[in-house]
Amino acid sequence: MNVKAALTSGKARIVDYASNEDPRAAAGNLVALVLAGNAPFYPAYVVLVAGSDGMPWLLMTALSFSFFLGIPAISRAHPLLGRIALSLVATANTVFCTWLLGASSGTELFLLPCAMLASLLFARSERSLMFALAILPIAAYLILHDRYGVPPHIYQPDAYSRLFSMNAVSAAMISIFIGFVFSDRLSAVRTPS
To answer: Rounded to the nearest 10 degrees, what angle do helices 64-77 and 79-101 cross at?
Structure first.
């Protein structure tokens, strides 16, 4: 099998794994797989911008990989549960990484795309669930900001500045990606309200 055929086959498997009859679950599954694909590389991004002094603690940021990877399997069995799980895993991962790296790293900014994701994962008829899961990242910020305690490793101020910039751009990019995915998936299929 040549490289092109292997890549085409791999892409087809990923698309099949992310597919779901529920268009919101399908969109959420794609977001979850992109987050899973990014998780193992996040420690490398941090090392590139802030140095390797935070090792081995930094490797713990990749723990979310299996949780995000499992979302499509949950969605296949129960689409609503998969959408709930994605919202909870994204928020929990953000809170965990903020504790691990410190609030000065800017990881709390990922709570914004978490709220956006929760707002898009649910239909009009699921508004109470949507509200509860969309408010969770905001509540996490209000309750935990400046209360995480001392992270396992403290970076230098200039490293925190670079981490903040990296995470600000990353949070913006994932927000844009989430918008594109949901716009594409939901405009292709008329969904019940």
So the answer is: 170
Residue range(s) defining the domain that contains residue 34: 21-188
User: For the chain, how many structural domains are there in total?
Assistant: 1
Q: Is residue 181 part of a domain?
A: yes
| Largest Cα span, the chain | 53
Domain for residue 193, yes or no? no
- pLDDT < 50 stretches in the chain: 191
Domain membership flag for residue 8? no
Cβ neighbours of 150 (radius 10 Å): 8
CA distances for 90 relative to 65, 83, 100, 191, angstroms: 11, 11, 15, 24
Tens-place pLDDT, residues 113-155: 999 999 999 999 999 999 999 999 999 999 999 999 999 999 9
